[in-house]
Design goal:
650 residues, alpha+beta, Transferase(Phosphotransferase), domain 1, four-stranded mixed β-sheet, three-stranded antiparallel β-sheet, 17 helices, elongated
Length: 650
């Protein structure tokens, strides 16, 4: 996390994994000025990811790294799955990931004390650092130098670097000669240095380290052995070049060995050989290569001992400094011009693999659309354009189709009619069970008229027509399954048979009723309700002839789901049967809600879409059997519970 801002954004590796920028503390991301506890933020993010297998926030994968970083500032930290992380550890991680550094633990020591107070079952004696620095055994990290902290050997042999920022001095103990020999032997035999590459890192300045009275003869022997090994290495490379063996690196000139080990010789020969000046501001490529090639097993245990002892003496304090731009490693450019080339960064590419997947999905969608269109075209051509047209041969009928379902006409008899005296009707209802279309109440004056005592039966129907449309057959059963127009035709035909003047005339597509004619016709809605109330315009009986439906009506509760013979229930005061129940009856009026704006309340509206139906039927419940209840249907509709009765004017 010591990289500069461009390095955060252009990190190498697979973009499917989190970028380093997501681990950086907010204060470093925003201002590049770290606090003493900034690393605790990064530590908490890594611990959360290591335990939970995901980042602490839900981030948009297609956003740029900086956008994802800003999202992490505003989004809540995800709650780990049950059993993955103890609550006390989750609480500590939350404190370490606070955006405000002042709300986090003050230092790593404070974090350690916090962990020790919470994880009481853990044996902290293995991590204790209270013993004396000379006797404690500690292990150094696997890699001595990861490139973030470069070191050089003598200021006299180095190129001038940026200004140094002084850090408190560390008094190190006398180095172990065996340790140094082991490190240098391993480094020199396995180092992999490309002399034409200069890697410039962000300078981390360490104050001079004072080593008390080093053994000059021992160091001289070490350097001589290193020189011999380097010459042998160069000789082997020359032999490889003579044999034509492929080598990605250029040959190393023997004069280039000096920056590594000759500097040590000259420093040892100086008058003051008790102090080593370490200036990491300008890291040397050979030293950087040396550090990167030291194996883990050769350096882990001894060097950790040195680092642990130094930390016991004094913890280093890191001071923020201006970031150093990365440059291209071109030795020729540095030698000839002395100027550092400007960095060239590749444009950030968002989610290469995800972009490929998205393109694949788009291509698959296009292919599916094309296939769907082809299938649709095939279906149209196969089953519409090219389909075979069926040809039918109608055989000669063996019997006459017109005679099917027909019977001979019944002997004609007059229809039994009941006289209804003139009076004034209060039409409608305001009772609690009344529907919205039953009010306001309307006052309608009526002349006297006659109405059939029963619904038209199937026998009476067959006096006029040879066919019987009814579903339930029987001479004394009401005719049903007839439309409004069927009832009109019956009225005119029966009037002619009985020597009466037909009441209906056809004016184009409209039917006109002559109420002055003496022929049969359908009762108006007012005439039907007045007859149902027994000729009493102010009657408050619920049903026609009674307040109890079973006494006067066949309906859903007692009909057995079919029509019944007429005149088998109690009549009303005028001797009229089945005004409530059995079959619902067509009337003349167009259906519309009651209104005082209707010009003729007796004849009803002049036009409409539905015709009114009254009385309820064997199919309906008792609420539709009421004298004031209203139904409606299209005039061409037919049903096994639609019938009618006839009326005549006097």
């Amino acid at each position: 996390f010591g990289k500069n801002r461009p390095a955060w954004q252009h990190s190498e590796g697979n973009f499917k994994y989190p970028l380093p920028i997501l681990y950086v503390a907010p204060e470093i991301f925003n201002t590049s000025h770290p606090h003493a506890n900034s690393d605790l933020y990064s530590w908490a993010v890594m611990v959360y990811q290591a335990i939970c297998g995901q980042m602490p926030w839900k981030l948009d994968s297609f956003s740029s790294p900086e956008e994802q970083k800003h999202q992490s500032f505003s989004r809540a930290i995800l709650m780990p799955d049950v059993g993955k992380m103890p609550d006390w550890l989750y609480g500590i991680l939350l404190n370490c990931m606070k955006l405000d550094p002042s709300e986090r633990p003050e230092s790593s020591q404070a974090l350690l004390e916090l962990l020790q107070s919470e994880a009481v079952d853990f044996d902290w004696s293995t991590a204790s650092a209270s013993e004396d620095a000379e006797t404690i055994e500690a292990e150094l990290p696997e890699n001595i130098d990861d490139g973030d902290h470069g070191t050089t050997l003598a200021d006299a042999d180095l190129e001038p670097g940026p200004p140094l920022v002084q850090i408190s001095a560390l008094d190190a103990p006398k180095p172990d000669s065996d340790l140094i020999l082991a490190i240098l032997d391993k480094a020199e035999t396995e180092m992999n240095v490309a002399p034409n590459e200069v890697l410039e890192l962000e300078p981390v300045v360490i104050s001079p380290i004072t080593v008390p009275e080093p053994d000059s003869s021992l160091i001289t022997a070490i350097l001589e052995k290193a020189d011999a090994n380097l010459k042998e290495f160069l000789h082997q490379k020359e032999q490889s070049a003579d044999l034509g063996l492929p080598d990605a690196r250029e040959s190393i000139d023997s004069n280039e060995e000096k920056p590594i080990f000759a500097a040590l010789k000259e420093s040892l020969d100086s008058s003051d050989d008790s102090i080593f000046e370490l200036n990491p501001a300008m890291p040397d490529p050979e030293i950087d290569g040396l550090n990167s090639q030291i194996p883990e097993e050769a350096t882990s245990e001894p060097e950790e001992e040195i680092q642990t002892q130094a930390e016991h003496e004094q913890e280093p304090v890191y001071i923020p400094q201006e970031p150093v731009k990365e440059v291209t490693a071109k030795t020729e450019a540095i030698e000839t011009t002395g100027a550092k080339p400007e960095p060239k960064y590749e444009p950030f590419r968002i989610m290469d693999d995800d972009t490929k997947d998205l393109n694949k999905m788009k291509m698959s969608f296009r292919i599916l659309m094309i296939l769907s269109l082809l299938i649709g075209l095939y279906v149209v051509v196969q089953y519409v354009v090219l389909r075979e047209r069926p040809s039918f041969e109608i055989p000669e009928p063996e019997i006459e189709l017109d005679n099917i379902g027909q019977v001979e006409l019944e002997e004609n008899h007059p229809i039994d009619m009941q006289l209804v005296p003139a009076d004034t009707l209060v039409m409608g209802s305001i009772s609690p069970e009344a529907k919205a279309d039953e009010f306001p109440l309307l006052t309608v004056p009526l002349k006297s008229f006659m109405i059939s005592s029963t619904e038209i039966t199937q026998k009476q129907w067959n006096m006029v027509f040879e066919d019987n449309p009814s579903l339930f057959r029987g001479d004394d059963l009401p005719v049903e399954n007839v439309s409004f127009y069927d009832a009109i035709e019956f009225c005119n035909a029966k009037s002619l048979k009985d020597g009466l003047d037909p009441a209906y005339n056809y004016a184009g597509s409209e039917i006109v009723c002559d109420f002055n004619a003496n022929g049969y016709r359908l009762p108006t809605e007012a005439e039907w309700e007045f007859a149902a109330k027994g000729g009493d315009g102010m009657s408050f009986l619920v049903y026609s002839g009674s307040d109890h439906a079973p006494e006067v009506a066949w309906y859903a509760q007692n009909s057995g789901a079919k029509s019944r013979k007429v005149a088998t229930k109690q009549p009303n005061a005028l001797g009229i049967y089945d005004m409530s129940g059995n079959v619902a009856e067509w009337v003349w009026n167009w259906y519309t809600p009651y209104s005082h704006r209707i010009s003729d309340l007796y004849k009803g509206p002049d036009s409409g879409t539905d015709k009114a139906i009254r009385g309820g039927s064997w199919y309906h419940g008792d609420s539709l059997l009421r004298n004031t209840a209203r139904l409606y249907a299209k005039p061409f509709a037919k049903s096994s519970y639609f019938g009618f009765r006839v009326a005549r004017s006097r």
